[in-house]
Amino acid sequence: MAQATFHFPRGFLWGAATAAHQVEGNNQNNDWWAWEQDPSHILQGHKSGLACDWWGGRWREDFDRAADGNQNAQRISVEWSRIQPAPDRWDETALDFYIEMLRGLRERNLTPLVTLHHFSNPIWFAEMGGWENEEAHLIFEKYVRKTVDALRDYVNYWVTINEPNVYAFEAYLFGLFPPGKKEPLTTMRVLTNLARAHAAAYHAIHALQPAARVGVAHHYRDFKPAKAWFPLDRGVTGINSKVFNDIFPRALATGIVATPFSRSKIPQAKGSQDYFGLNYYTRDRVAFSLLHPGELFSHRYYQPGAQLSATGFLANEPEGMYDAIRWALQFKLPILVTENGVEDPEDQLRPIYLAQHLHQTWRAVNFNFPIKGYFHWTLVDNFEWERGWTQRFGLWELDPATQKRRKRPSADFYAEICRENGLSSEMVQKYAPSLSEELFPD
User: Hey, which of 127, 163, 238, 285 would disulfide with 219, CB 3.0 to 4.6 Å?
Assistant: First the structure.
């Protein structure tokens, strides 16, 4: 095995990513809390409950863990329903709480990346039609202005909306997120309204904070044809990628939302990103199938023999990370990897997944692709939406009943990567020895 280190650029951001509803606890005024009250909505009837008890103050110890782990950044989100508990009311105490959190990050030399919408909505907004409401972008803009005005002294990087494609599909096509609809036309209308909301938020943030860096966390799912030689497999693969991956980021590049059912001009959306946030987890094989008309006549599956996560939710496909970054290049923006990680309670796959995906990220850096940071999902096990507590993505294990944290070996692995600003053969030999010859051949 060769002795070497894959170094990343000076000033690279290393952190972890979280979302408010998943970590704060007792978020009782949003649509997710209401959704959880029906046990059929969440695996095993789980509820978020205290989550990681950040609202109770345990963010302090978790930020200490991030800082002690040599991270220099953190991606967090703020909860809209706390800041605006009613259409005509703002909660200054909630804003003060977030200011305290942001000061806590700064005091620990952690650069904040703050998400303004991460899947959860105030109940009052949902009752007004949520993202189906044609005025949704105006309502969202008011919340963004209030929040950014309060927090701008502590934040330079903003994510307006997390994974708009995942949100729209899960909530309005697959029915797994509130409001639990299965309506293709509504899904595309919601995507369009989310693009309007992002554009409104982007310009509002820059009016308040001209030097801010504003983007979206885009979820990229890598699709590959089951049989590359078969035209129908290639065709449905391309359709899946265009519909799921391309609609939203291309709207922000061109000012046109082009869905299979409609074409809407949103000129204010054109050029409304200062960086490209990229979330990547896994890759699907796609085969043409007449048996699946509701899935664009395609059958999606993981490559036989692929390493699967604990529940089979993800396949370890690190080459897809490089493909995701290469796909993001078309938008000609600096790139932040805003999420990447794997569910693994026993921490057997995580070190392998982490090493391989960071190696692929380094490959892209080595070609001078403009990658500026990497945020691991996630710091501490948290409430994974419709999958409840059945999946464990944390560098630190959490027992939700006792709130006890336990460090997994991958936390030490990631700490060494962050300290070195690189991935070394020595680290791989220590934490993922099966990869030594693959990543560092003689």
Answer: 163
